[in-house]
What we know:
alpha/beta; 2 domains
Amino acid sequence: MLVDGVQMRPIWKVDGKEIIQVIDQRYLPHQLIFKDLETAEDTIDAIKQMVVRGAPLIGATGAYGVYLAAVNSPGRMVDEEYLRTECEKIKAARPTAVNLTWAVDRVFDAALKEPSGENRIAAVRDEAEKIVEEEAENCRMIGLHGYELIAEISRKKGGKTVNILTHCNAGWLACIEYGTATAPIYTAFEKGIDVHVWADETRPLNQGARLTAWELGKAGVKHTVITDNAGGHLMQHDMVDMVIVGTDRTTHTGDVANKIGTYLKALAAKDNNIPFYVALPSSTFDWQLTDGIAQIPIEERNPDEVRFVQGESDGKINRVLIPPAQSPAADFAFDVTPARLVTAFITERGICRPNIEDIGQLFPDKMK
Amino acid sequence: MLVDGVQMRPIWKVDGKEIIQVIDQRYLPHQLIFKDLETAEDTIDAIKQMVVRGAPLIGATGAYGVYLAAVNSPGRMVDEEYLRTECEKIKAARPTAVNLTWAVDRVFDAALKEPSGENRIAAVRDEAEKIVEEEAENCRMIGLHGYELIAEISRKKGGKTVNILTHCNAGWLACIEYGTATAPIYTAFEKGIDVHVWADETRPLNQGARLTAWELGKAGVKHTVITDNAGGHLMQHDMVDMVIVGTDRTTHTGDVANKIGTYLKALAAKDNNIPFYVALPSSTFDWQLTDGIAQIPIEERNPDEVRFVQGESDGKINRVLIPPAQSPAADFAFDVTPARLVTAFITERGICRPNIEDIGQLFPDKMK
């Protein structure tokens, strides 16, 4: 996507070098910093420390992590057992997003189709790049399908502003290009529809206030940052026409694990008869699990992410302590929105209801 | 309440002087600063700037504001028209909490029972102090009534920890003594029940992380600070036994205006069959309004409260900017939880269902 006139993605391979570069998303919006990843360990750290985040990007980073493991393999031989061990380590970096396992397994399988050495390295690199391009294309398609939903609301409102609430960042920073939740918004904006986004700040790490607001601002899309507490009030007062969020893992029965707090917005949308959409590439579907609340592992992160807030002051990035130093805190990263609260999924193949039958109809090749 | 061995309230009249002192709640938990209020204008500023906050405390501060207006009246004559004008100014300081109007009107009426001058000043002072003592006693009674609800859950759980979620600060800092939402918790704790509080941090001003956590910590009550996003997940996983919140205005038909985000927690409690209680002194009932969502004015505050977060770093109070400097923000201070989502009210006279009949039975003298 364009940032101040420069075409940019959140991850890319450096031309002619065996190095992956990423935007270090911890410092946005106040500093745009790029970071080199040169080993599998670097990618694991980048995923764990949330240098990169967002399910599709975590998948892409994991895929490139396998590539970096391959180029750093003893004697560049890319021995199967070595690669398998590295892949397991990468897959364990974060537990909730299913894309990580999906992408790493896919690249690993591609490697094994080649005998060894440079052939495997090339196969791994090509497959990782293929995943990246596919996810970008998936997002573009999500944008086209989701656009129809926004256009319909715009028509019903006689062209008046369509107000869309989103939680966290499911934009291009999370997804290579366009984003998942934001793709329909960008498409609608490009086609001249009057859209305005309520961006939940998304505590604890404020990906909404920091990243979604930054993305939308750079693209010129109208938006307003709100606290995570505000959405219910806005919905009660007809200030939200639709909700679109991303997801980190979606059971093929329709339950949605996404950033903590998503469930609360889904409840409020239901209570106020506002459509609640989840946008996702099919890489985010979990084709095994059937009960999201019982089965999807919810990551608990360092409580300091809750206790401290990072931002800009005097031109520098600083962090401040909010609660008493002695007070314990807890940091649950995701929650699960049950299928009954979801209006529909917006996928690269089209829109479907959140149940096993409709998902299966759209993805018969993937349903096991 | 005891703070490090010192008996403390959030507001008091200085002995022998015509000065009111308050805890400046903007600097807690990192700094305990007292502030002098010497004029009605000082009290208006203190209410607007949230030096003091919380419905009962706003009422008490308003009452003392009338006293300060009286002592500063031209020639200490306390002319009726002068006092009426001052009262209107004080009542306009914040729109949502009904206690402010209730307390100011009550003190004004007490003034008019005296002919003028020093008699009026004494009457105003006495009535303000009476309100303060009554609110403290109301909180004590709320604690006793609410205690029974906690004790019952404790019995059902065989003495295992009772987990209580609260939003914002409805503690003694907001209410003179004990608090409203926290009074049952303090009472249960004193009686030896194993309680643990999930304290919503309560963005934008973090009254939960800053004030509730500070209060509970000073009292030795187990607690954990969480983001406002976390409650739904905790409820889905049986980690919350009950919710208790305060309120800024409650219609006599049972709708509850409280800190923004309360409605989302009420929805989650309903969705998970968890009791949702609202604790309030009867001064917080609005005996006129019948439809909270349509009729209660919701204050919009300065968006910088959302854009900046204040905390401690390097031993100093600092604030950091979260979103891009150019991104607009909105700051809605309250939302309304409809009566259908409330299990019961805990009042100084006992517990009642959130409907006009049951509220009227408990407060037949106040229902108009």
